[in-house]
Amino acid sequence: MTDQLTGSAATTAWRTEDRIRARRAAIAGGVGTLIEYYDFSLYGYLAIVMAPLFFPSSDPAIALLSALAVFGTAYLMRPLGGIVFGHIGDRLGRKKALLATLVCMGLGSMAMGFLPTHAQAGIWATVLLVVVRMVQGFSAGGEVGGSATFISESAPRHLKATYGAFTPLGSTMGFAMAAAVAGTVSALTTDAQLESWGWRVPFLLALPLTLLCLWARTRVEETHGEDADSGPVQAPVVAVFRRQPLALLQSVGISLACNGTAYIGLTYMSIHLMKSLGYERTPVYWIATAVIGVVALAMPLGGMLADRIGRLRFTVISLAGFAIITYPAMAVMHHSLWIAAIAYLLIMVNTVGTQVGSYTLMPLLFDKDVRFTGVAMGWNLGVVIAGGTAPFVAVWLVEKTGNVLSPAVFVIVAAVIGLISVAGVARRSKVAQEQLG
């Protein structure tokens, strides 16, 4: 069959106004996702600082595991956020849903910056921390699915990956920006200042960033309802489970692989370099910034490559890369910080293909009237299973096995699950022929 998933179909006439519309959608989606993931990932980078402030313990490992458990708790709210914002997006419009997710995340991050510590409020500090993280998780549950859906519907068939790459560009650059801000604050403050008030500064920057993104998102055109054969369904989440259970299952597998592999590098690797290998905090933050920044900037190139060689093929190559490279790369990180940085980059470069492929493929698996909900549900269920748990499981594996390389096994298992899921998508000729417009 002619696999339209590869994007090899002949290009069609494309008007100037269509280009402007697709460009605005890509920028608004990417910038919004950047801000959302900057806000959301800050906690992961500052967990090693915040752990004793909110979870005082005589054992630093217990405090860190507690902080990372809260990091994972936020992900439990993501499926609920996906359902709620998916309902808004499929019933009332993509634009309304994306504006709502942004406001919700911005308010949550501002609240994080004003939280009292355990020394100031006792157990209530921990309770408030969990509540705020759950608000952030709820917001993030609607962001990625909405951004990927919105950009996909605004882009032509032959450039879906090229424009779709702006979603992972934004999300990955958000992690890089969070690492950069954490590194800057760490470099400009003493340990005592960082633990006293410095950790709050990155969260309080959410306000100006949120306002900037709101401006960008108010300028885009709505895609909801175009070319629809009928009105919106009354309950999109029910329709997804009833009409497209296989698409949902495959999207969960793709998301699990994409997030399980990426989050080891995005959230755990800095902890690994500092805690397991003993490198200093500030240079590790800057290495994370550089590696994740390079990967983020490579996303548009990855999108163009995916549209040329095939989105499925590009995804398979990258998943195989994670499975093959992660263990040996982690094995050499102890030699020096420079070798660790290069090994870190070799691992993370594979996320270009997994993220570009995932963000492009998943919207194409679902009918338009339930697409926002389907993508959000599939993505968030995969994130809950393997994304939010990644740093916790990685630290737990090291603590239980005594082997600092054990997190690589987690990555390999996630990559194999992704390969199985992508193989299932490749066999769906009906989807390839009918759904990928």
UniProtKB/TrEMBL annotation:
Signal peptide: none annotated. It is found in: Cell membrane. The keyword Transport applies. InterPro entries: H+-coupled_symporters, MFS, MFS_dom, MFS_sugar_transport-like, MFS_trans_sf, Sugar_transporter_CS. The keyword Kinase does not apply. The chain crosses the membrane at residues 25-55, 61-85, 97-115, 121-142, 163-185, 197-216, 252-271, 283-305, 312-331, 337-366, 378-398, 404-426. This is MFS transporter. It comes from Rhodococcus jostii.
